From TrEMBL:
Residues 11-71 form the HTH tetR-type domain. InterPro entries: Homeodomain-like_sf, HTH-type_TetR-like_transc_reg, HTH_TetR, Tet_transcr_reg_TetR-rel_C_sf, TetR_C_31. Keywords: DNA-binding. This is TetR/AcrR family transcriptional regulator.
Amino acid sequence: MSRVRTRPTRDDTCEKLFEAAAHVFEEQGIGSVSIEAIAAAAGFSRGAFYSNFKSKDELIIAMLEDHVEQSIRRCLDLLAKHKDPADYIAAFRNMDRTRQDPLGRSPLLHMEMILFVARAEKRRPELAKRLRARRQMITEIVETTAKNTGKTFQDPAWVGAILLALEDGFRLHRLIDPETTPADSFLRAADDLRAAIGVAFDAP
């Protein structure tokens, strides 16, 4: 007879800490939030926090890593189901955002956390790893969609870097001026670019 698990697994604990940290960070600001406040918001003791993370900085980096991993998984899952670029963009546009991680649901907090980590030069390599992972993901999407449509790119990695910069730029513009930056601005731009440079896909 199997035993019923009564204690949370590390993944369960991390998920609750991520959600709690996101809530108190948004409410009080990242710099002013203590480890005790995060643990209490998650319903855990200080000891439970330290059994998973050595510091608040480590928790933040783990949250950023989890966000990137989930984003990559969602995008590649969609890509496996939608071979045509237009279908992929449409599916991405209609994706259920409520099921995303805390940083996926709060672009402003995501950006604040990136800046918080970037302020310390010694922590920037951690951000660089996530940036490279995102670039690689978009490069894979570019390569796969090109292959599925029988097209070619001179430099898929560069196209991926352009698209990622475009996405980050529109995210920032959306936070600053939502009235003139619709939520689907990046997807509209990507679709327009796909159509505008369609002839270039066939370049030798």
